[in-house]
Amino acid sequence: MSNREASKGMRTVMVGDVMLLAPAEAVEDAAALDRYMAQPYMERIRALSKGARAKPGVLLQADVRHDAWCPVLAGTGLCTCNPDVALRVVSGGERK
């Protein structure tokens, strides 16, 4: 995790083969992590991950774009919107 992420209070979480950034308080203990991982869009991330068939050594990151009114953006709760989810290669996908 970069200093920039740490200063924003974010932590890296793996969902299958996909890395995403989560608010630190959402993953501070096992119960909080379970609640965070139970959000409906996590299943979409898992499905996209399986469909992407990442090769060994390739790291995918999930970009989740919540609606402006979503509680997760205000830090007042978990996601209740239907966010756009996309995967992108962040390392290991380069050919030399």
Main traits of this protein?
96 residues; alpha+beta; 4 helices; 31% helix; globular
Question: What's the gist of this structure?
Answer:
This protein is α+β, with helices and mostly antiparallel strands.
Describe the structure.
The protein has four helices and four strands; from the N terminus they run H-E-E-H-H-E-H-E. It has 96 residues and is α+β, with helices and mostly antiparallel strands. The chain has one domain (3-91). It has a four-stranded mixed sheet. A hairpin with a 2-residue loop joins strand 1 and strand 2 (18-23).
Mean pLDDT metric: 79
Helical/strand content category? alpha+beta
**Helicity, as a percent range:** 25-40%
How many H/I helical runs? Answer: 4
Radius of gyration: 14 Å
Query: How many strand segments?
Result: 4
The domain tally reads 1
Strand content: 25-35%
Q: Low-confidence segments, ≥5 residues, pLDDT <50? A: none
The SSE string, one letter per element, is: HEEHHEHE
Strand order of the largest sheet: 1-2-3-4
How is the biggest beta sheet arranged? Answer: 4 strands, mixed
Distance between the termini: 25 Å
Overall form: globular
What is this structure's SSE topology?
Layout: H1 3-7, E1 10-15, E2 18-23, H2 30-37, H3 40-52, E3 59-65, H4 71-74, E4 84-91
Parallel strand pairs: 2-3
Antiparallel strand pairs: 1-2, 3-4
